[in-house]
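Please supply some protein, with fold tokens.
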Amino acid sequence: MKFTKNIPKTFFVFLTLSLLIWLLITLSKEYVAQVSLNVSYEALPQSQLLQASPKEEIQIIAKGTGFKLLSTRFFNHSVQLKTNNLSKKGKEKYFFLASNQKIHIQKQLVSGLLLEAFLKDTVYLEIGNLVSKKVPVISNLKVNYHIGFDALKPIQIKPDSILVTGPENQIKGIESLSFAPLLLENVSVNFSEKVSLLVPKNLKNVNYNKREVVVNGFVEKYTEGSFSIPFTVKNLPDNLNITTFPKEVKVVFKVDLPRFNQVKESAFTVVCDYGVSETNGFSYLIPKIISKPNFVKNVKIIPTKVEYLIQK
């Protein structure tokens, strides 16, 4: 035979009330406990800056009621520390004693919480000079042009340099900046692309006057042209006569269509240096272009070697 015991509901009511009363009495008493405080720091002079992230918390021994101490577990308590009375330990390392700011910190604590002591009294700061410098922006662009098209002039990056400001020991390691990789395919028209700069993620105290740049490209249709150019031989001894084969070389180049008719044969000068061939023991001459129009590109000489015979 089974027996069922019915517990009156009033029992649970009295049990709950008893626990609440015990909790209120317990939390109303004063205790001493360790408390963590979030910290911030007074602004430094404009010419100085923190070189590294400082301590974000300090631990104190505090006295207060259980209610006050318990509240520190659930709510973030933050205090500001003064930086106007620092002692120097090294070139960029400074420190101060939190105990010297005890009254200042006490005023920022919640009412009823008494600051007794600090677990670690010394707070270290790395402080250096605030400096600025301009660094160039390096291209990270790759362009594949449509057949018959090419760049009319060099790619433009605006701005082409960035003003970087921050701690001296961090700034000195930044020599240049680049932007996110940009690939353009089958390009046949002018383009303008806005891209984000790639900045070092580990440098938290560095500021950049721009975070984006604009990449501009100017594109034109190109064609190929060529001329047969006579060449001269320099550094030939006075008592030596030679016959070259061939007597002219072919100069092949690319030029944009609008300026094709501006390219003149007379704008090209080709020279072979006999002294270079003699010094290196070559049995041939090497033709080189020493002048050409500045707007032509991909200039080639055919052939790349000129044979010669010495006349006796």
